[in-house]
Amino acid sequence: MCATPAGQPREHHVPERTCVVCRARRPQSEFVRLTRVEGHWQEQTVNRTGRGAYVCSDSPNCWQDKRLRRAFGPQAPDVAALLVRRFQTTQTNQPMTD
Ligand SMILES: [Zn+2]
């Protein structure tokens, strides 16, 4: 017989990441991924492996340079500015759709 049951779609395995600031575990899509390029932290938009740091993309509490300092050290203010600027850009460009 070839009547193979289609089977229930299984839950997608969503890879979880941990915020370097608040330690929350969430799906990767809810984070901003930062990577260090030539000594400077910047947002990583290209999907590739490597060393990265994840920060909640929707949580201003995680964007305070004081809290970022543990993960980013002296570059924390730069990272904070990047996250805030990114958020403002997202806000003006599009509504909350995905
Ligand atoms: Zn966080």
UniProtKB/TrEMBL annotation:
Domain YlxR: 17-73
Cited InterPro entries: YlxR, YlxR-like_sf, YlxR_dom
TM spans (from-to): none
PANTHER family, per database record: BLL0784 PROTEIN (PTHR34215), YLXR DOMAIN-CONTAINING PROTEIN (PTHR34215:SF1)
Name listed for the protein in its UniProt record: YlxR domain-containing protein
